Amino acid sequence: MAEDPDSELVSRARAGDEGAFAELAGKYQSSMLSIARGYVPSGAVAEEVVQEAWIGVLRGIGRFERRSSFRTWLFRILVNRAISAGVREHRSVPVADMGPVVDASCFDAGGTWQVPPEPWADQVDDQVVAAKISARILSAIDELPLQQREVVTLRDVQGMSSGEVCAVLDISNANQRVLLHRGRSKLRQVIGSEFGRGR
Amino acid sequence: MSRLRFRPRRDIVCREAVELVTDYLENALSQAQHRRFEAHLAHCPDCPEYLAQMRAIVALAGSITPDDLTPGMREGFVSVYRRWRDDEAHDPV
């Protein structure tokens, strides 16, 4: 396993350093809220779930054996709390959302682009453009269906490995890739439309 | 010896390539698929841009830095933490 990026903060939080705990909280709070909101009926309940998760973390941190990364353990606690507080069945990839990621009308009968993507990828290198688009991508992630939002948040926003994400969400690597693919593809459409056309 | 002959594989088309992008970026394609995907990219005028956009999405999502805690939130976390620390002092695990 790769070295835990939170190793030092966790040691300090264990040893009584409240600043280290606050730093961990700042790092993960918004992603935790975003994920919790998918399980429970309201933002207020999501906040309660996240707070309970942090209390669970503190209760367990002395016994946390670092067999997984701290963030895997943290999000696992969160998801368990959210499931017990939540109203919806979780797991399994929703079949309803399995259509093509690019509208079929963009391709000719042979499967070649007839309405190719408008180029914008190189504009993202521009700092000013990237800063504007970053705000939009955050709201676009929040609009993704829960499972896609979870995977994109953990993988792409938090930078977790596929193994960590599978451990947190208790899904197979293949499912993880499907959800990541669909989530990223939707974000591509949203950001594409910010640049003019969202094909 | 027809048994040993490889079944000729047709090239992948754009419609298929867009569905393989994530598996490609995740290194989850078989060697044969990987080669066919890259062969398609090499001659397709549009799919390289599609791949670049998906890469840009990953980079953009990774550039999001979580909002700093508001002072009120920070205070909340610190007080939860202090309560825990005091409990631990009285009732060590």
Structure summarized in a few sentences:
The complex is a heterodimer of chains A (199) and B (93). Chain A is mostly helical. Chain A contains eight helices and no strands.
Walk me through the structure.
The complex is a heterodimer of chains A (199) and B (93). Chain A has 199 residues and is mostly helical. Chain A has 8 helices and no strands. In chain A, helix 4 runs parallel beside helix 7. Chain A starts with 6 loop residues before the first helix and ends in a 5-residue tail after the last helix. The longest helix of chain B is centred in the last third of the chain and has 20 residues. At the A-B interface, helix 2, helix 3, helix 5, helix 6 and helix 8 of A face helix 1, helix 3 and helix 4 of B.
The most extensive interface between chains reads: A-B, 56 and 44 residues
Overall pLDDT score of chain B: 86
Question: What low-confidence regions of chain B span 5 or more consecutive residues with pLDDT below 50?
Answer: none
Query: How would you sum up the global shape of chain A?
Result: elongated
Count the strands of chain A?
0
